[in-house]
Amino acid sequence: MAVQRAKNGLQVVGSPLFLDATRRTPLCFVSHAHSDHIARHERTIATAATLRFMAHRLGKLESPLAVPFNRPFALGPLTLELLPAGHILGSAQLRVTRPDGHRLVYTGDLNLASSLTAEPLQVAHCDTLVIESTYGHPRYAFPPREEVLGALETWVRRCLDQDVVPVLLGYALGKSQEAMRFLSDRGFKLAAHPKVHEVVELYAELGVPIPGVRRFEGVAEPGEVVVLPPHTSRMSVLARLTRRRTAVLTGWALEEGGARRYGADEAFPLSDHADHPALVRYAQATGAREVITHHGFAEELAQGLRREGMAARALGKALQLSLL
Hints:
Elements: E1 3-6, E2 9-12, E3 18-19, E4 28-29, E5 44-46, H1 48-58, E6 64-66, E7 73-75, E8 78-84, E9 92-97, E10 103-106, E11 128-133, H2 145-161, E12 165-169, H3 175-185, E13 189-192, H4 194-205, E14 213-215, E15 224-228, E16 244-249, H5 258-261, E17 266-268, H6 276-286, E18 290-296, H7 298-307, E19 312-314
Parallel strand pairs: 3-4, 4-5, 5-6, 10-11, 11-18, 12-15, 12-16, 13-14, 13-15, 16-17, 18-19
Antiparallel strand pairs: 1-2, 2-3, 7-8, 8-9, 9-10
């Protein structure tokens, strides 16, 4: 067994190391700073960018250890190494090499598509792969990223041509910055919700500037695109934008009624996660002899991997072998 579910979250078997635990632990690797992957740990291993985002959200961290990519280091008898995950700025996979040479990789969220604001994913070769399965069901196959971004630009221009304020709904960390960088590069003016704008400033601090973004205070200037977190779609923050159309940016746009779920007029399947085909390709590329899926559609992804001839199982379930 490579990993186990413990009281506080996933843990590397035979070690004190937890993985993306959402409750306090003595020692935890944090793959990225989205709220469903972080907590106030006694000691935190992560990239410098992830630690900066965590401190912004949680306050001063206890005993943070900032680790550069591709710089192996020792943790007792284990050797640890962080590799880019392509999800958001600073997101990382963790490779753990045991004294016998066995290599375990934990991915956290990952994305194979090229990003304007995140380090490109690096394939983490391993013997055992523990992979997140958020979009692990075969029905999740995203259109090409260039196609989605092109459709988004067309929608924004149409709104502005009709003297309507285009409002984009995207997660404050990661998704919003990706969309704003794309639109900024095309000359659009942007106004971002204070929570989103704070993260834009952190991106600039970390070497990823997004020009032409101002803090949104409730009034859109002519020709501006407004960017808000999804939870504000039904709040008074939109009250003064009487002529507006809203679009949500999410992989869940592929679901029927995806726009309505967020109170939006449109939904674009722009995701910072890998879809089912990409998850399968990635698992194959690692060369793993064993794949453990978890979170989201774990069983569906494991089934898809087994169809491709890989030894795969959902965390906590026995490997199902096909009878020939």
